[in-house]
Amino acid sequence: MTKPKMPPGLGARGRAFWRDVLATWEVNRDELELLTEICRTLDLLDELRDAISRDGMTVAGSEGQPRAHPAVSQVTASRALLGRLLAQLGLPDPEGVPVPSARSAQAQRAAESRWNRRGQGA
Question: Does position 104 have pLDDT exceeding 60, yes or no?
């Protein structure tokens, strides 16, 4: 199978991840779409982190009060999306954050549920 063409517009991190994945695994058309979104999400995370580094964790609100930089919540949402996309594709997280399998995530929720009930006298 020939290597798929890299999508246009990827940043440095997205391009590097694209190359690394395709050097190791063969992907089908559906997986290729997931890989593209993962690469774009990695690039977005870099842009958001650059904005936070440049502006700081807080910015001035409408009345001059300090408030969280809007990119902070976007980093959180993008990390969650990245984790879901990686899990769908079955790839490890390039940032070193373990991606739980669906089964281990379900087991974790069940354990938390039992633990929470225990504290309620059930």
Answer: no
Name the token pair of 42: 């990695």
The SS3 call for residue 25 is: coil
Q: Residue 10 and residue 27: Cα distance in Å, rounded? A: 18
What would the two tokens of residue 75 be? 């980093």
**Integer-rounded Cα radius of gyration of the chain:** 19
* Residue recorded with tokens 């991840």: 17
Give the tokens for residue 9. 């517009």
Q: Tell me the CA distances in angstroms from 61 to 12, 58, 65, 66, 72, one per residue in order.
A: 33, 9, 5, 6, 15
Over residues 19-35, the pLDDT tens digits come to: 999 999 889 999 999 99
| 101, 107, 118 from 14: Cα distances, Å | 23, 32, 45
Task: Report the distance separating Cα 85 and Cα 31, nearest Å.
Answer: 10
Q: Where are the domains of the chain?
A: 12-96
* Contact residues for 33 (Cβ-Cβ < 8 A; gap 6+): none
